[in-house]
Structure formats: C-alpha cells, structure tokens
Amino acid sequence: MKTVVPQTLRKLRRTAVLSAGVAAFVFGACPAHADTTLYVGAYGGSFEQMLKKDIIPGFEKANPGTKVVIVPGDSTTTLAKLQAQKGKAGMDVVFLDDGPMYQAIQMGFCGKLADAPIYHDLYDIAKFKSGNAVAAGLIATGIAYNTRLFQAKGWPAPTSWKELSDPKYKGKLVMPSIKNTYGLHALIVESKLNGGSDANIEPGFREMEKIAPNVLSFDPSPGKIAELFQSDEVAIAVWGNGRVQALRQQGIPVEFVYPKEGAVALAMGMCVVDKSANDALAQKFVQMILTPQTQALLAESQGVAPSNKKTQLSMAVAARVPSPAQIDKLVRVDWDVVNAKRAEWTQRWNRQIER
C-alpha cells in the first residue's frame, strides 16, 4: 500500500534537508566566543522570516556560540542606521538594494570582502565593481496586478509601463515613493521611455505627473501593499517579482508582469560593515548566503534569481524567478549618475508628485 505523505510534512522535510545543507557548509572552525552576536541588517517581512526559519539556525549550528540577530528595515532605513552608527559598534552585515549599496560603499560603510572560492562561482552581474559588496540575488522591478479584480472588471493583463497612466486605474495604483528603489526605478524607466535617460530625468517627472492622479498609496511597506491587494483596494502596483511571490504565498491573488519595454534590474546587495567587531564571522555569513543550498532557498521563498551559477532549481521554482535570458533583457541603472542626483530628485518628487 502506497504511503501518502502530507504536504506540510513534505515541506518540513524539504526545509530540514536544505537547512542541513547550509549547516554543512562550514568554512573551518569559527573562533567565536560564547554568546557572540552577529547583527544583520535585512529586509523585513517574508525575507526576515525566511532568514530566521531556514538559514540562521544552520549558520548558528555551524558556528557554535554564535547568535544572529536580524535588524529589520528597508534599504533607506538600514542605510540611515549605518550613518547613525558610524564609528560605533552596530550592524555587522547589511542587505541593501543596489542603489543604496553603492551609496553605502561611497560613504565608506562597507569593508572589503575576503577572497574565497565561492566568489568564482558567481555571475558577473552579481559582482559590485568595488569588491566591497556582492549580490545575494537578482530581482526584476515590474508591474504587479490583482488577478481577481482584473477578472471582475474584464480587464486584460497589463503589458506596458505606459499603462500606469490609464484613467481606469484612478485611485487603484500603488506607486512606491522615490525613497524606495521600486519607485525610483519607475521614475527612471518612465524617463527612458519618453526620450530621457539616467542623466536627463525631466521626461520621467512629466510622465509621473500624469500617473500621480491614479495613485492611492505611495507607501512601499510590504504589509500595507498586501493589505491593499487583499481587500481589492488596488488593482495594480510597481513592485518586484520577489515581493509578488511573497504575496502569492499569503494567498493574495496577484501576478507579476515583465513589461514589454523591459523590467528593471535590481541586485539584492550585501556587504560586511567596515571595521565590524565580528569581521571573520560576518565574512562567513556572506559566503554562506552565496552557497547553492542557500541560493536555492532564496529562489524558492523570495523569487530571487540566483547569483551562484552552480545553483540547481526545480522547474517550478525556476519558472518563478528571472531566467538568465530575462536578466539579459533587464533595464540597467547607472547608479553613479543616479545617486549623485537622488537627493535633488527626492525633494522635487515630494513637491510635485507625492503631495
């Protein structure tokens, strides 16, 4: 007689196997003293929960006496915390979107990554040119839409960035603030589609003024966006493919679209904080995130395309993350240009768009 294994039990077994694989990846004995605490600045929500449940236990087991504490926050918040703690003990590792990560590097907050064999297994797009940071994974910024609401309205699925200004979405759009990478991506891509560029943002602001009347919320918090989609208060949003997957896992009827003009590349950066009191342990944490085992966990739970070329994904998971072909088509951002103008653009956004 065939034994039927409940889905929940299968999931627990799979998680245990993956966690065991992470635990097995030990970079030599760690000289951590009892109760050594590693502080990791990371995204909140489903990402934080995934770290606590599936990754940190294996790391702590592989490094006896170590406790990992997550300091949750979006990229803007974590960067502000780095500025506040400069010269003092604080976070040891941080996850930041690529734009804020380049700012953190420029401000001297990220130390050099120690050389290790794992870095030779990464795609070139995952490597930051300074050598002070690396991408834990790759995400696409595109369009999320409420499948239940679209079906009820008889609307076809969106296909283009230009649809964000369609009057039928009045009061039904979430456009994250420019302080958030997704909102900044939207401004840049709208500029490029209307004759501008990273350096010439004027067309982007003109287009955003047309889009603004459709916006119900500029709040980029995952919890708020989940609530708005679940209650059918919003039909469409500018959002990342990984965040959309997290919403789907909550049972929210939402799909991700790669706009025909191209989604925007977002690297989930991570670095070891300069002069960390736990530098050796922090380096091991970063390297562990890049192992094929952990990369597979990130892809499965967060919809993040692996940075490590050796990562093996099931067909189901591979279908939910940007493929190598899709990554090649992503719109790239020149962060050296954009970061130099970001403060100025933010002030202008607050005056003209989010008012």
TrEMBL record:
Keyword Signal: yes
Leader sequence segment: 1-34
CDD domains: PBP2_polyamine_RpCGA009
PROSITE patterns listed in its UniProt record: PROKAR_LIPOPROTEIN (PS51257)
GO cellular component: outer membrane-bounded periplasmic space
Protein keywords: Signal
A single BP term in Gene Ontology: thiamine transport
Pfam families listed in its UniProt record: SBP_bac_8
Superkingdom field: Bacteria
Coiled coil feature spans: none
Name of the protein in question: ABC transporter substrate-binding protein
UniProt organism field: Pandoraea pnomenusa
